[in-house]
Automatic annotation (TrEMBL):
Presumably involved in the processing and regular turnover of intracellular proteins. Catalyzes the removal of unsubstituted N-terminal amino acids from various peptides. Residues 348-355 form the Cytosol aminopeptidase domain. This is Probable cytosol aminopeptidase. Binds 2 manganese ions per subunit. Its cofactor is Mn(2+). It comes from Paludibacterium purpuratum. It comes from the Bacteria. GO terms for molecular function: manganese ion binding; metalloaminopeptidase activity. The active site is at residues 280, 354.
Length: 521
């Protein structure tokens, strides 16, 4: 799809469709009012008849609006004006694109991007409209011989901005939106691939090819190199599979000084999780191909950050393997030695994600990171706690947690800061090793984070448990691309602070100081 940014009056647009908004009070937005005036009250007359009441997400397509140069006018319900915020804006955009895709219009101009949204500016409006549009139109049909019900979408979409002076900010927002969408698409494509295609070696090859195309560095470590590092915990998970593990390391040196401490992203890359010897139930096991969505999301965030040319040093690390049962597989009761030298009693082989992440968290110490954020579909307990709305956020630094939380709020990719108090560490005690790999049913997501924290004491660290947000089930089953938007906004904010710029938070722009001193729990 081709995107454009434009400033101009809606009644002068000679296109297939012009998109405008209507509030629940039947109040017209400025663009809708201009069309109503030129049509001698045609639009308001339709609304008075009750065909469009302005309910959020509702749509109505009008043909042959008098004196308008466009073929169609789409009215989009915005809900109550006093309640119209970022969430409602995204929902209105999504509804308009779905409705537009059901028409034959191949070109449209949307005036929803002109709407006033409290605390947000033109750049954000265009960025979010772009991301939501491409997310709505996303389809994964690579393996279908015939596409059943394709969602078409226009060939060209123009996003309107209020004034000509806003065009530059609109272009910036569009560039950001396209980069974030590219990262989300990569994450969704990788997540949706079946396990027989997206193996550890396939994931590594894709990462290498992406890095080469972006001009970034890529190091791919094979089994021998992983063994040489002493990653006994990671290798214990890979033992049961015929697929060899890989450790993927991507590097982007965007800061002026290559020696600046990098941000490090770590993603869990279990390309298929059977549970190992602690075998999962058969029902729903097909969705365990999504157990590498942590890896997919950090690769997607890396792609977006490099395309945006963010002036920071960024390193992305992905330990990837399968978790399968076999005569060689790790068994409940086995004790393994991690790269850090700490020993782990494996009580449940289905708690494997933490076993590969802990060695990756030790590995990244060599980069002297400014901070490390790991992303993983780690626990079913996280889904019980937060459902499919919010990602669970843990950190050994409250300041870092606040950065991630704020980034998620900014882009609608929400996370919630969870406790990780020392009392929870007691559940990981083992009579035979330094720790057990599970802490029992109570607070399962918390104790999983506590486990990882034992390998991240040398730097500022945060953990995102995306088990409930990385994919969806049912008729819309598939990867969501989350938390790519959160991660990219976090990286953008870090880059802005490093450059001494203000962080993009609302309108007007505000001053932002350095993160607060350590006030960890």
């Amino acid at each position: 799809m081709e995107f454009n940014i434009k400033s101009g009056s809606p009644e002068k647009q000679r296109v297939a469709c012009v998109i405008v908004g209507v509030y629940e009070s039947r109040k017209l937005t400025l663009a809708a009012d201009l069309l109503d005036r030129i049509s001698n009250g045609f639009v308001s007359d339709v609304i008075r008849r009750g065909d469009m009441e302005g309910k959020l997400g509702s749509t109505l397509v009008l043909h042959s609006v008098p004196h308008a140069l466009c073929d169609r006018v789409m009215l989009v319900g915005l809900g109550k004006e006093r309640e119209f915020r970022a969430k409602e804006y995204r929902e209105a955009i999504r509804a308009s694109i779905r409705a537009l895709a059901q028409t034959s219009a191949n070109e449209a101009v949307s005036y929803l991007s002109e709407l006033p949204v409290k605390k947000h500016e033109v750049e954000w409006m265009v960025e979010q409209a772009t991301v939501v549009t491409l997310d709505t139109l996303y389809r994964f049909d690579r393996f279908k011989s015939k596409v059943d019900d394709p969602l078409r979408g226009p060939r060209k979409l123009t996003l309107a901005v209020p004034r000509r002076s806003d065009l530059a900010d609109g272009e910036k927002g569009l560039a950001r939106g396209l980069a974030i969408s590219a990262g989300m698409t990569l994450a969704k494509d990788l997540g949706n691939l079946p396990g027989n295609v997206c193996t550890p070696s396939y994931l590594a090859d894709e990462a290498r090819d992406m890095a080469q195309a972006l001009g970034a560095e890529a190091d791919i470590l094979d089994r021998a190199a992983i063994e040489a590092l002493g990653m006994g915990s990671f290798l214990s998970v890979a033992k049961g599979s015929v697929q060899d593990p890989r450790l993927i390391v991507l590097k982007h040196w965007g800061a002026k000084d290559r020696n600046d401490a990098p941000v490090v992203l770590v993603g869990k890359g279990i390309t298929f999780d059977s549970g190992g010897i602690s075998l999962k139930p058969g029902e729903g096991m097909d969705e365990m191909k999504f157990d590498m969505c942590g890896a997919a999301s950090v690769l997607g965030a890396f792609k977006a950050a490099v395309e945006m040319k963010l002036p920071i040093n960024l390193i992305t690390v992905v330990p990837t393997c399968e978790n399968m049962p076999s005569g060689d597989a790790v068994k409940p009761g086995d004790i393994v030695t991690s790269m850090s030298g700490q020993t782990i009693e494996v009580l449940n082989t289905d708690a494997e994600g933490r076993l590969i992440l802990c060695d990756a968290l030790t590995y990244v110490e060599r980069f002297n990171p400014s901070c490390v954020v790991d992303v993983a579909t780690l626990t079913g307990a996280c889904v019980i706690a937060l459902g499919h709305v919010a990602t669970a956020l843990y950190s050994n630094q409250d300041a870092l947690a606040r950065e991630l939380f704020a980034a998620g709020e900014e882009v609608g990719d929400r996370a919630w800061h969870m406790p990780m108090w020392e009392e929870y560490q007691e559940q990981l005690k083992s009579p035979f090793a330094d720790m057990a790999n599970i802490g029992g049913r109570p607070a399962g997501s918390v104790t999983a984070a506590c486990f990882l924290s034992r390998f991240a004491k040398g730097y500022d660290w945060a953990h995102l448990d995306i088990a409930g947000t990385a994919s969806r089930g049912g008729k819309d089953k598939g990867a969501t691309g989350r938390p790519v938007p959160l991660l990219v906004q976090f990286l953008q904010d870090r880059a802005d602070i490093a450059l001494g710029n203000v962080v993009r938070r609302g309108r007007p722009r505000r001053e932002v100081t350095e993160p607060a001193e350590d006030d960890a729990d």
